[in-house]
Amino acid sequence: MKSQAAPECQRCTFREFSLFKNCQQGELEDINENKCFHTYKKGQVIFHEGNRPFGLFCVFDGKVKISRLNAEGKEQIIRLAKPGDTLGYRSLIENAKYSASAVALDDTQACFVPASDFNKLVDSNVKVANDLMKMLAKALGESQERMIHMAMKPVRERLAEALLLLRSTYQKAESAEPFSIAISRDDLAAIVGTAKETVIRFLSEFKEDGIVSAHGSTITLLKPERLLKISQLYD
């Protein structure tokens, strides 16, 4: 992990979509003065499950997976993060150890806001505190929905859903090309909640049906509408 020149919070490209969208100018200046900016290589851990939080992470560039180990010691990816997303806020609020790890899926840049600065902001800015509560409620709802899907949906439907999740998270709004992403089969299996071999088998079926194409680790969604129908079979 290495530091480099940081973007200014006041002019951040993702400010209007982030937890800090309702900050006052002076508050942004204070955060900008005290934050750190780091670059993480693909596969590098941003924070470890079981460690204590010392601040908040804001993704500026790249892709991040938030994952934890289940009772059998297998990885489960519980969330995907993109530029503008905030990491580690729940553990920071609870003053509890991280319940999951954050790992860079590709080269990633993130700002680190010390806990003291973040807590001061939440205590003094009602709008930020409300946005934080909404973020927590949304995360809880998504977690509950994921648990239901893991219990009720077969693997084929969950794989279709996972591919659509990757698309909704990482597709650039201005792109007219079919969505493509480089992702390991291990990571895809950790999102779906199954074995890598099972993911490979169902991906092959999707390829034969012309729904996706795959070259190396890169998967392209050729017919997302077919994936949507498959994902909704058990809704």
From TrEMBL:
Keyword match DNA-binding: yes
Species of the source: Siphonobacter aquaeclarae
Protein name: cAMP-binding domain of CRP or a regulatory subunit of cAMP-dependent protein kinases
Single GO molecular function: DNA binding
Entry-linked InterPro entries: cNMP-bd_dom, cNMP-bd_dom_sf, Env_Response_Regulators, HTH_CRP, RmlC-like_jellyroll, WH-like_DNA-bd_sf, WH_DNA-bd_sf
Ranges of residues in domain HTH crp-type: 153-225
Entry's Gene Ontology cellular component terms: cytosol
SMART domains reported in the protein's UniProt record: cNMP, HTH_CRP
Domain of life of the native organism: Bacteria
Keywords, comma-separated and alphabetical: DNA-binding, Kinase, Transcription, Transcription regulation, Transferase
Entry-linked Pfam families: cNMP_binding, HTH_Crp_2
Domain Cyclic nucleotide-binding: 19-139
